[in-house]
Design a protein that fits this description.
Two copies of one chain form a homodimer.
Chain A: E1 2-6, H1 17-25, E2 28-32, H2 42-49, E3 54-56, H3 58-63, H4 65-69, E4 77-81, H5 89-100, E5 107-110, H6 115-118, E6 133-135, H7 146-156, E7 161-165, E8 167-168, H8 174-178, E9 188-189, H9 192-206, E10 216-221, E11 229-234, H10 235-238, E12 248-252, H11 259-265, H12 272-282
Parallel strand pairs in A: 1-4, 1-5, 2-3, 2-4, 6-7
Antiparallel strand pairs in A: 7-12, 8-9, 10-11, 10-12
Binding site for S-adenosyl-L-methionine (chains A, B): 9, 84, 114-115, 165, 223, 248
Enzyme class (chains A, B): transferase
Protein name (chains A, B): diphthine methyl ester synthase
Chain lengths: 287, 287
């Protein structure tokens, strides 16, 4: 059996008690290590689980899944995923391979907390979210802006948009690679500030009033942990906000944002007066 | 401290190990018992947690929250919620009351699995969902159809819609009430079949091709448990499908449904040939 086990968002103790039992008895334990990370290191995880854990990077999951699935039709293999297993399509892909395996490998998924719902901590109603988008690190010559069209679509319905922020782990250093050396760059995690400023940058080009400086947004960091932080403000304000260590995410507020959502979210505002003024002027159900 | 602790979806062992520690040491433990239920009974929960649990019905949470919050500025109170704490706005409301309490009561939320993400088990990408809607039990003279407008909005963008199904627990028997007696009706949980047939019924009145008989949908039951069941088909087919005991939910597929989603979902089809034919004709990215 392949068990795909969600670990939740913060630390080693967010696993379910059922998940922990399976991890402790499984033959092999893998940890998917490239779409998200916990806020604690591998040693702390291994100490608590009482198991050593094999890190599964993108290459292993996408190209060497045979190794992960070896003998899983007769032994138990645990594949651990930070957050909820279905938040990344890669894991659907792994499940498809189990079905197509000869003999087929039975799979079982243990759901857990995901940023997609934990973001309710902002006070925004999960019923008022449209499609989720991703934001990647811009470079000088690569600034993909398809997120802009998705947010524009959500905006037509007045819905909030959750923006998931890029992380780069185990990225090869391209200059070293050109010299024939494989050196990995230090991991990078996009901050709320960088996301907000990239959004404003794209707005300046596209100019459809989708994510300009005065749009209201809420930045979140380390949700579900003791050090959780939530900051609300305009995209301009968030471009300068420091929410501390990763992981960060951002929600762009939709105009349907109703009074109870506002009442809750304004407590997190950098400038409460400004937040209230803009909410009353541009939001408050004005779709 | 008020701890709002998500219990996950299936049974007593879906709580996180961190959550379990808090439950075991808290002064009082409440279980929210009206927006969702676990698939196991209260005794099983209490036996595993090693604590007796106070059932908190809607009236207690909405009108007698003082009782729940009593002394919580100096002792630990655990408030357990099936699924994820933020999936119901009631809990945001409770957190607001903690802020306004004199002295303020610190709160901490432990996220957990939610149907909003566990629905990824269908193979549909969580990035392709629009707003979530609710479906209530129709009666002869009350058939609220605002869900129809929300789904129509999602449809314009080709997005999937998660439909959460009504549950009725501790509803007073109105006939007995008229005779001055309070008798509670047995709990009722909407099935995928009933939801699908209500959707088709409303389509017959509204006729905007939002949720007619030939629309593709996926019914899910008891997600995250051993007895999880997933069935795909037209709304017509799902109107006759029996997915067994609660809880059920339904996803109406959006036209943006891409090939990898289809490939995964078709495995659950009641009539695979028919499913493929309709997907190719009406879906496959045809927004």
């Amino acid at each position: 059996m392949l068990y795909v086990i969600g670990l939740g968002l913060a630390d080693e103790r967010d696993v379910s008690t059922k998940g922990l039992e399976i991890i402790r008895r499984a033959e092999r334990v893998y940890l998917e290590s490239y779409t998200a990370v916990l806020l604690v290191d591998q040693q702390q995880l291994e100490a608590y689980y009482g198991r050593s854990v094999i890190l599964a990077d993108r290459e292993m999951v996408e190209s060497q899944s045979d190794e992960i699935l070896a003998d899983a039709h007769r032994i138990d293999v645990a594949f651990l995923v930070v957050g909820d297993p279905f938040s990344a399509t890669t894991h659907t892909d792994l499940a498809l391979r189990c079905r197509q395996h000869d003999p087929p490998i039975p799979t079982r998924t243990l759901p857990n907390a995901s940023i997609l719902t934990a973001v309710g901590a902002t006070g925004l109603s999960l019923y008022n979210f449209g499609q989720t988008v991703s934001m990647v690190f811009f470079t000088d010559d690569w600034k993909p802006d398809s997120f802009y069209d998705r947010i524009a679509e959500n905006n037509t319905l007045g819905l909030h948009t959750l923006v998931l922020l890029d992380i780069k782990v185990k990225e090869p250093d391209l200059k070293a690679l050109a010299r024939g050396k494989i050196i990995y760059e230090p991991p990078r995690f996009m901050s709320v500030a960088q996301c907000a400023s990239q959004m404003v940058e794209v707005e300046e080009t596209r100019q459809q009033s989708v994510c300009g400086k005065e749009k209201l947004a809420i930045g979140v960091a380390r949700l579900g942990s003791d050090g959780e932080r939530i900051v609300a403000g305009t995209l301009q304000e968030l471009s300068d906000a420091d929410l501390g260590p990763p992981l960060h995410s951002l929600v762009l507020c939709g105009k349907r944002m109703h009074e109870m959502e506002w009442e809750y979210a304004r407590e997190f505002a950098i400038d409460r007066e400004g937040f209230d003024r803009i909410w009353k002027r541009d939001y408050a159900g004005k779709v």
